[in-house]
Specification:
Structural class: alpha+beta
Bound molecules: zinc ion
Distance between the termini: 42 Å
Strand order of the largest sheet: 8-7-6-9-10
Shape: flat
Number of strands: 12
Largest sheet: 5 strands, mixed
Strand content: 15-25%
Helix content: 25-40%
Number of helices: 4
Radius of gyration: 22 Å
Number of domains: 2
Length: about 260
């Protein structure tokens, strides 16, 4: 097969197929597959091969706190929130889901509602992934080493609502996106134990108990008063650096420095 501008040429089909190339193809094309989804949209997926980038010695490090109030907060003060149009699309998705369940089983109306829900759900997924790609790109551009909490370690201090579960799935994706972008740029992702990261003072190490609704970190020992998520991200950064300094094993992805 071959991609000639926007025309895809396949050996089994005569003539070219007009395609919308939504992303530049990087590297040498190895395989190509064609997929049709529930909404009857067709996709062409290319697998490409890239040269290994040169791993560079990390000079800068940022910690990232993933949350619900803010999607992500970094230790250098960047705040990432889900865009309004995404929140609206998500609302529409819930409404379409409810509407589907009101329709009679096997009815034509139910079928219609199903198709509608599938296309709205696809839009929500696309918007979410687009946002996660933008955030991971900015994270990788911000520092040579990016530190996250390891989501595979159960964290009893954080709440376990359904909303949180859905978030965790997205955060897993954000970390994977960051790992793959970091790999391509010769940068590093480190995962640390999430235990107490939201409670510990990033300046003096004191445990400052907070409920979920407490948005400000106020340390009576050293006097630090900052946004709780910013405090957490700074603590996560420190944990990442400490783990590297003392050779403590950090977990995940096999990307952590030895
Ligand atoms: Zn303190």
């Amino acid at each position: 097969m071959e991609l000639n501008g926007t025309r895809l040429i396949l050996s089994k089909i005569s003539g070219g197929i007009r395609t919308f190339v939504h992303r530049q193809i990087v590297g040498r094309i190895k395989t190509c597959s064609i997929k049709r989804d529930k909404t009857n949209a067709w996709y062409v997926i290319f697998t490409t091969e890239l040269e290994n980038p040169v791993k560079r010695e990390p000079k800068t490090t940022i910690g990232v706190d993933l949350g619900i109030t803010h999607a992500a907060v970094t230790s250098d003060g960047q705040y990432f929130d889900y865009p309004k149009y995404y929140v609206q699309a998500e609302k529409k998705n819930r409404a379409a889901n409810k509407s589907l369940h009101r329709k009679k089983l096997g009815s034509n109306n139910r079928k219609k509602a199903q198709t509608k829900l599938a296309s709205i759900a696809k839009r929500v997924t696309n918007l979410r992934e687009e946002f996660l790609h933008q955030v991971s790109r900015k994270l990788v551009n911000s520092a040579d080493r990016i530190v996250f909490e390891d989501l595979s370690i159960p964290n009893m201090l954080k709440n376990h609502s359904l909303a949180k579960h859905i978030q965790d799935v997205s955060w897993g994706k954000l970390i994977r996106f960051t790992v793959s972008k970091a790999e391509r740029a010769g940068k590093t992702v480190v995962l640390v134990n999430p235990y107490n990261t939201s409670q510990r003072c990033s300046a003096c190490g004191e445990i400052v108990s907070k409920k979920l609704k407490d948005r400000v970190h106020i340390c009576s020992r050293c006097g630090l008063i900052i946004c709780r998520d910013l405090n957490a991200s700074m603590g996560i950064r420190t944990l990442g650096l400490r783990g590297i300094a003392c050779g403590e094993p950090t977990s995940g992805f096999g990307l952590c420095p030895k």
